[in-house]
């Protein structure tokens, strides 16, 4: 825990999570809880290796902090779902005794930003919210009862999207105003839709987690939480404010303007919020997870 625990996070004011429900529902540090497994529905923010198991192997420096080798995770170490993971083996009644986590939506938001802009992306975000709610209802019909839905991260603070933006587009903390406003609109829509879904599933524990605000706090005030860099990538190329180059991704080598360059990792990822300009570091994921579990530090 070391450097990350040097200063206590005060994120309970930011997380719109019902603390009592989280304590009784997740209670990962309480022996009374008995979740047999976690079924995660997510993108690269919570993929523990599925993509890279099906496609060519991931290369270093991914995994350098915790696993000491690439494991298919888009980080230098663990993801939020790793910190939530139960350690016991599943039983035959696994579906009714499992935690279902949803950490998804970022790709839907970001994949077409360059082509259609924020206004265009906003138009199909309701479909994403509807699909999440529909999937929860399907899982409930199969016996699922415990659901944890993390909202969309503040992508307006991600180095990959900040690179090249004019200063007039940035707020006082160096994050994109329009991107994060759109994220907030999406998260409000998700929260309202889940409230309606919760009302229709009488036996379900359905928790909306405002992990976005927890991560936003780290981007805005990294030094308050034992970190040093908010909107700067640990693994990247180019240095400067963001250390991110769209032409060469973390761990890759490419010839640019006649020179061979490699996007390498920093020596101290524990000081960064952003791992590769798109995903969070092990340190940031740990801090956000602790906020989810405890409500504060």
Question: How would you sum up this structure, described in words?
Answer:
By secondary structure, the protein is α/β, with parallel strands linked by helices. Helices cover 34% and strands 13% of the residues. It contains nine helices and eight strands. It has helices at residues 19-25, 50-54, 80-84, 106-110, 113-141, 159-162, 177-200, 211-220, 282-294; strands at 37-42, 98-103, 146-150, 205-209, 229-233, 253-256, 259-262, 272-274. The strands form three sheets. It has a four-stranded parallel β-sheet with strand order 1-2-3-4, with helices on both faces. A two-stranded parallel ribbon has the order 5-8. Strand 6 and strand 7 form a beta hairpin. Helix 5 (113-141) packs parallel to helix 7 and helix 8 (211-220) crosses helix 9. The two termini are 13 Å apart. The model is unreliable at 1-32 (pLDDT under 50).
């Amino acid at each position: 825990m070391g450097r990350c625990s040097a200063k206590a996070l005060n994120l309970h004011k930011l997380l719109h999570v019902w603390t009592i429900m989280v304590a009784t529902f997740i209670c990962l540090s309480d022996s009374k809880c008995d979740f047999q497994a976690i079924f995660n529905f997510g993108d690269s923010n919570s993929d523990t290796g599925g993509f890279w198991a099906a496609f060519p192997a991931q290369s270093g420096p991914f995994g350098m902090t915790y696993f000491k080798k690439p494991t298919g995770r888009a980080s230098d170490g663990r993801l939020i779902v790793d910190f939530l993971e139960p350690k016991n083996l599943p039983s035959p009644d696994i579906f009714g005794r499992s935690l279902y986590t949803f950490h998804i939506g970022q790709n839907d938001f970001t994949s077409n930003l360059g082509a259609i802009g924020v206004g265009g992306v906003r138009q199909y975000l309701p479909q994403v919210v509807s699909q999440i709610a529909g999937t929860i209802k399907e899982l409930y019909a199969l016996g699922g009862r415990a659901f944890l839905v993390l909202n969309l991260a503040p992508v307006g603070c991600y180095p990959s999207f900040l690179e090249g933006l004019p200063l007039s587009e940035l707020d006082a903390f160096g994050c994109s105003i329009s991107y994060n406003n759109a994220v907030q609109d999406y998260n409000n829509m998700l929260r309202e839709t889940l409230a309606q879904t919760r009302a229709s599933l009488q036996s379900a524990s359905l928790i909306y987690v405002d992990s976005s605000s927890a991560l936003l706090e780290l981007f805005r005030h990294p030094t308050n939480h034992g970190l040093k860099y908010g909107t700067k990538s640990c693994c990247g190329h180019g240095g400067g404010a963001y250390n991110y180059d769209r032409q060469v991704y973390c761990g890759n080598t490419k010839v640019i303007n006649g020179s061979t360059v490699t996007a390498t990792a920093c020596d101290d990822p524990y000081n960064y919020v952003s791992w590769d300009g798109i995903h969070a570091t092990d340190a940031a994921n740990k801090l956000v997870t602790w906020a989810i579990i405890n409500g504060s530090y």
